Amino acid sequence: MSVDGTVRSRPGMLERLAVGIDIGGTKVAAGVVDESGHVLERLRRDTPTTSPSAVEDIIAEIVTELRRRHRIYSVGVGAAGFVDATRSSVLFAPHLAWRHEPLRDALRRRTGLSVVVENDANAAAWAEWRFGAARNEEDLVCITLGTGIGGALLFNGAVHRGRFGIAGEFGHMQVVPAGHRCECGNRGCWEQYASGNALVREARELARANSPVIHHLLSSAGGDPGAITGPSVTAAAQAGDPAAVELLAEVGQWLGVGIASLAAAFDPGMFVIGGGVSDAGDLLIAPARDSYRRTLTGRGFRPEARILRAQLGNEAGMIGAADLARVERRRRRRGRGSRSRARATRPVLGGATDRRA
Fold first, then answer.
1. Is the dihedral of CA 12, 314, 25, 227 positive or negative?
2. Do both 144 and 287 map to the same domain?
3. Is 2 part of any domain?
4. Which end of the chain has fewer CB within 10 Å, C or N?
5. 33 with 56, same domain?
6. What does the pLDDT average to over 131-136?
7. 132 in a structural domain
8. Number of domains in the chain
9. 3-state SS string over 274-300?
């Protein structure tokens, strides 16, 4: 390790290093990741604007900087949005101005490296399966609780992306007909009841109603309901504030209802819960487990999937994107090698090299 804390690439790690990029509405986080899932160096930049070309500039600059210190062979990009089935274009990103944006090809031209673009929830799920909470589980559902709800499916150890590449948008399942309006345009979506936004909305509504149960939480926000945040509710709950505990339990109950529906649809062996809201731990997960057991179809007569908290935290998307890029590069190299061997052994019919009798 160098004096600045950077882990230098060891000779045995060459050709196994990839850069993972996690793109959000406010930040671009990047890391050099080895094939064991260890992050050797991290960089972070503010997302400059919503301009696709400006974001590409930042990614290219990050990759260039990291290549000065590490021998990088591939780049994986995790994007919050709809990524097409070829993992080349971002069809739609809610926090960036990407509409059918050919991001993979643009970054290939800019970096000269193999590039894979992946939905950020898919990347996080892959990381948890490879290196985190879901190791040794072949069929799992990953749920990411942040501002909204992201999701991913892994069947038989492979990411299931759907026919058009956008499977796993569980946050927009309707759970309450004519319920809260969602940013997607519909009403009653799951993420309106089991997400960071839902937690904050309920806390602020109590505060604006001058409910005495929210007194301590409101005081800690300086008396301003608008200053109440998800992390502040979680911190208050962890300190034992009854109202905050109740608010998290309500989100957990809705989480369990949705998980039960996903169990009926997909029958996985495990649900992995990640994202910032999962920092609440058992204050969220325990009510979710209870609600899941109460609403599971065929309860009492079927095995129950395990519900576990993710292990890799905020770096899961970055680690997973890098590892998926490494896997894809190896697959392409094997494919090229197989084609080359086939051409080398193929007889030239009718020519001098056709040795058949």
1. negative
2. yes
3. no
4. C
5. yes
6. 95
7. no
8. 2
9. ECHHHHHCHHHHHHHHHHHHHHCCCCC
